[in-house]
Specification:
By secondary structure, the protein is an alpha+beta fold. The chain has two domains: 188 residues, Fructose-1,6-Bisphosphatase, Chain A, domain 1; 127 residues, 3-Layer(aba) Sandwich (D-Maltodextrin-Binding Protein, domain 2). Helix content is 30%, strand content 24%. Strand 9 and strand 10 form a beta hairpin. Bound molecules: 1,6-di-O-phosphono-alpha-D-fructofuranose.
């Protein structure tokens, strides 16, 4: 039997008891189509002058790449007409994007990082798109920032795309995490990983070692013990990977285990990664794959957001390692 499409997967999830009403199914399919368009734009590279800086800054004060702006536009234009959204939030826009009056509004809120890892785009390293779906609060016609400030546990769906050697989509609607691969000949995502499970044990960690001098004690202790290898308390050697595209690091961890850390530290006191459209969707997916996701100590999805673009420390991946790091923070 051939591989099933994203559309068939969503219908089968609904039949099996997941909460995937037609509106949500359509939303996810449209986001999938937008990711295909972003993949096509990214793959042009130098051929069509889409690399390099856009000459602008985003709300984070970060220099925008042309592809950051292009990807953001693709997601906005793909999703604004469908009638399933009340508003959208993007890493690239300070305020929520309200659905234009010419289109109907719906019950969902979409949040996204349109091009994660964009500092890698000019050197041809994998990048991606991360998205999160929340319900619009009952009775809210014109959602403002406060409508979005829901803990990650309220997400109804989350996913990310990786624009790498193959274009992948990882998705959860609350019944496990699944992986899809873009079949470019027919132009659709095909189910290639029906139920992703992260190994609870690992000997591989991912962290930006250049920040070592800024780490707080629990992280420093954990990494020192990994680096001590066989002769240390862990009694085994560890390997390290750091792609600097969260989507690529997280997909590797979903595939073979590992622990990803971007902790809050003396430099990034509130952490570097954004809670609403990076940490929360990744935490939902990782937990659905049997892993764990904390800010070092607290479960990411329990955090009550206070601002749309707030940052948070992130430790996620193989459950036993994330729990060990949480113990070090508690100790
Ligand atoms: P950019 O989108 O600005 O490249 O940031 C990517 C990211 O948010 C996340 O995807 C990486 O894990 C992390 O930042 C890389 O941070 P460093 O460049 O400090 O290693």
């Amino acid at each position: 039997m051939g591989r099933i499409s994203l559309s068939q997967y969503l219908i089968e999830q609904e039949r099996a008891g997941a909460q995937v009403p037609p509106e949500l199914g359509l939303l996810i399919e449209v986001v999938g189509r937008a990711c295909k368009a972003i993949s096509a734009a990214v793959s042009k590279g130098d051929l069509e002058g889409v690399l390099g800086g856009a000459g602008t800054q985003n709300v984070q004060g970060e220099t925008q790449k042309k592809l950051d702006v292009i990807s953001n536009e693709i997601l906005i234009q793909a999703n604004e007409w469908g009638g399933y959204l009340s508003a959208m939030v993007s890493e690239e826009m300070e305020k929520p994007y309200q659905i234009p009056n010419r289109y109907p509004k719906g019950h969902y809120l979409l949040l996204f990082d349109p091009l994660d890892g964009s500092s890698n785009i000019d050197v041809n390293v994998s990048v991606g798109t991360i998205f999160s779906v929340l319900r619009c609060p009952e009775g809210v016609g014109d959602p403002d920032e406060s409508s979005f400030l829901q803990p990650g546990a309220q997400q109804v769906a989350a996913g990310f795309a990786v624009y790498g050697p193959s274009t992948l989509l990882v998705l959860t609607v609350g019944r496990g995490a699944a992986g899809f691969t873009l079949d470019r000949e027919v132009g659709s995502f095909k189910l290639t990983r029906e139920r992703i499970v992260i190994p609870e044990e690992t000997s591989e960690f991912a962290i930006n070692m250049s920040n070592m001098r800024n780490w707080r004690a629990p992280i420093r202790r954990y990494i020192d013990e990994c680096l001590a290898g066989k002769s240390g308390v862990r009694e085994r050697d560890f390997n390290m990977r750091w792609v600097a595209s969260m989507v690529a690091d997280v997909y590797r961890i979903l595939s073979r285990g590992g622990v990803f850390m971007y902790p809050s530290d003396l430099k990034y006191k509130s952490g570097r990664l954004r809670l609403m459209y990076e940490a929360n969707p990744m935490a939902f997916i990782v937990e659905q794959a049997g892993g764990a996701a904390t800010d070092g100590a607290r479960r990411i999805m329990d955090i009550q957001p206070e601002a749309l673009h707030q940052r948070v420390g992130v430790v996620l991946g193989s459950k036993h390692e994330v729990e060990r790091i949480a113990r070090y923070h508690a100790g």
